[in-house]
Amino acid sequence: AKNSDRGSYKLFNAELSQIVSSRAQLLLDLKEAVEQKQLTVVYQPQFCVQKNIMTGVEVLVRWHHPKKGMIPPSDFIPLAEESGLICAITDFVMHQAIHELTTHELLYRDIKRVSFNVSAADFNHSESCERFIANLSSLPGDWSVIELELTESAALLNLEGIKNVLDVLRQRGVQVSLDDFGTGYSSLNTLRLLPIQEVKIDQSFVKDIIKNKQDAKLVRTILAMAQALHLRVVAEGVETHAQANYLMSAGCEEFQGYLYARPMSIEHLVTFIRNLKQQ
Ligand code: C2E
Ligand code: CA
Ligand code: CA
Ligand code: CA
């Protein structure tokens, strides 16, 4: 038994070191990706279905690896957060999206809100606030079109530091959204301590809303709470009419998901908006 134990230990070790080295390789690749412009951004529209208007877009990063092809954010964002590389990615995403949207003259006129995903690690440095300000300074107009989406699990770590930065940005009009709402450990505490105007109901709640009574009740509770606190609510991951209808009847007003639009390039967004107007 001892021998085979040792054997499995070795095996485990070998697997582990392979995981470690492939992660290290991925991190090296990611550094290169940031420098060599392998990253792009896509936009996913959000809608107020009742009023039949597009309320905004969420910006999502994409990585086209030269050999491995498309790598999903869930595979590299955590790595970027741990390594601190996320700051460079956030800088790129903000610059690129603002550049593309202003080049195509979509901001302010057609698009009233642009949401960026930010990580707790984006707030970890003494110059975090200046960084955000520098990134947003290329905006041709006021900053109330900008929204930062913060995940509550991320916020937990450095609530005080995050609050200080958000307070400054709030004064300039930037809006704040709590992403993946309900999935973290202290959603209410985060809501209480940070200057938040919007919550996003996580897609894990939306997914089974029709079948799962418990999920449906939780979503209704989130909506009631948001209403009491005068928070906007966006439901994410809406894929079916049944989900949308249920959410609407429960009082949800803003929707994002494949049912309405998938994340798309700036060129597709231009066409998408043009078609919306012709409807
Ligand atoms: P998230 O912020 O919760 O973004 C929503 C994710 O759900 C996106 O995945 C989007 O493509 C996907 N999605 C949208 N509608 C639907 C739907 O109807 N059904 C399903 N099944 N999925 C839908 P994506 O683009 O792969 O991003 C995954 C996560 O990676 C994001 O989750 C966000 O946490 C993170 N992320 C993406 N871009 C950035 C970024 O620029 N910066 C940071 N820090 N994180 C990012
Ligand atoms: Ca988000
Ligand atoms: Ca989510
Ligand atoms: Ca998220």
Automatic annotation (TrEMBL):
Keywords from the named record: Membrane, Transmembrane, Transmembrane helix
Organism domain of life: Bacteria
Domain EAL: 23-277
Keyword NAD: no
Keyword Transcription: no
Protein name: Bifunctional diguanylate cyclase/phosphodiesterase
Residue span relative to the full protein: 223 to 501 of 505
